[in-house]
């Protein structure tokens, strides 16, 4: 029976979340040295059909106690259960030495898609509280966002991940610099996630060699409210961390707000004046979020 990931694997920010094709041994070998906040081990689009079986074997090996991914936060992206590969992906986990921290379900269209994966996982021996992450990348998912996030307590949904490549394919939207066409959808996805306390990750940036474009898109994602960005190449990790982690100034300001509300004279205050501006308890909550996201 597969065992769950050790509780000692640290939780923490999701500023930089790197996809790795499970079939790419060289990538897996580098995983521990890269210091991404989490790894998405991909069995779906980055793995050719002829390589799926070998990739499942590599996952079982990599998840072992001395495996290439031991000690890392690992999310496994399976193929959809409506494909030729999804059922075998789930079955492969039955024989894995441990469960990943979460399973990422591609091309989710409704809460039922997540419920079906959860049920299949439990039949394969997964713990009842195994977290599911959902790719939001189809027009149906956008239309059904409210239902998908509302059902999170039942389905175990913990995080939404934007799939801009599939959104572009399905909608015929053109994703240009600045992502003008995509921004309304991005905002909807962030709002849906926040309404139900879920994490939410921005889409990948395909132009690996364009560091300036990537930095601009990270800044945009941060301003839209995302927790972090999904990545396709190690060269993107540092810039994503720099964009999504709070700056030194933001940390100093947050610490000042927390310290001010901790003063005995402010114990009953709803709003105080700090450095010439009004600060309310909602700003204290924001400050605490900032300090937690370091
Ligand atoms: C895009 C790549 C195929 C490019 O690979 P490569 O040509 O090998 O790049 P480099 O030569 O620049 O690589 C330099 C070294 O870095 C390692 N490397 C590269 N990518 C990764 C990675 N993702 N993780 C770990 N290590 C990586 C190389 O092995 C080189 O190492 P070394 O030999 O020591 O020098 C490749 O980057 C890649 O496969 N990226 C991930 C692709 C992927 O997973 N795609 C699926 C997710 S994207 C998506 O579909 C999102 C969503 O669904 C949507 O719809 O939008
Ligand atoms: Mg996709």
From TrEMBL:
Listed GO MF terms: lyase activity; magnesium ion binding
Pfam families xrefs: HpcH_HpaI
Signal peptide location: none
KW Magnesium (keyword) present: yes
Annotated binding of Mg(2+), by residue: 137, 166
Cofactor(s) recorded in Swiss-Prot or TrEMBL: Mg(2+)
HpcH/HpaI aldolase/citrate lyase domain segment(s): 16-234
Residues binding substrate, per UniProt: 77, 137
UniProt keyword list: Lyase, Magnesium, Metal-binding
GO biological process, one term: oxaloacetate metabolic process
Family, as annotated: Belongs to the HpcH/HpaI aldolase family.
PANTHER family xrefs: CITRATE LYASE SUBUNIT BETA, LYASE BETA SUBUNIT, PUTATIVE (AFU_ORTHOLOGUE AFUA_4G13030)-RELATED
Full protein name: Citrate lyase subunit beta/citryl-CoA lyase
Annotated source species: Chelatococcus asaccharovorans
Organism lineage string: Bacteria, Pseudomonadati, Pseudomonadota, Alphaproteobacteria, Hyphomicrobiales
């Amino acid at each position: 029976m597969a065992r769950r990931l050790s509780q000692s694997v640290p939780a923490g920010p999701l500023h930089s979340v790197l996809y790795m094709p499970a079939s790419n041994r060289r990538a897996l070998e580098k995983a521990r040295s890269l210091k991404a906040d989490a790894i998405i081990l991909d069995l779906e689009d980055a793995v050719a059909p002829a390589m799926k079986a070998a990739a499942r074997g590599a996952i079982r090996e990599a998840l072992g106690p001395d495996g290439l991914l031991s000690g890392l936060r690992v999310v496994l992206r399976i193929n959809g259960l409506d494909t030729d590969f999804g059922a075998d992906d789930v079955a492969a986990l039955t024989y894995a030495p441990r469960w990943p921290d979460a399973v990422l379900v591609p091309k989710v269209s409704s809460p039922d898609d997540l419920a079906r994966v959860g049920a299949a996982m439990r039949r394969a021996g997964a713990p009842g509280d195994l977290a599911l992450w959902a790719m939001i990348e189809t027009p149906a998912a956008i239309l059904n966002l409210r239902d998908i996030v509302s059902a999170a307590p039942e389905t175990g949904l913990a995080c939404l991940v934007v799939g801009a490549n599939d959104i572009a394919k399905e909608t015929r939207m053109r994703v240009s610099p600045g992502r003008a066409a995509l921004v309304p959808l991005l905002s909807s996805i962030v709002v849906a996630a926040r309404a139900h306390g879920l994490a939410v990750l921005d889409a990948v940036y395909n132009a690996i060699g364009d560091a300036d474009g990537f930095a601009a898109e990270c800044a945009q994602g941060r301003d839209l409210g995302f927790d972090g960005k999904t990545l396709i190449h190690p060269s993107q990790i540092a810039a994503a961390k720099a964009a999504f982690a709070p700056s030194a100034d933001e940390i100093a300001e947050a610490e000042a707000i927390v310290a001010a509300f901790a003063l005995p004279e402010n114990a009953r205050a709803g709003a105080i004046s700090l450095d010439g501006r009004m600060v309310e308890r909602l700003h204290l909550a924001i400050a605490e979020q900032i300090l937690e996201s370091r």
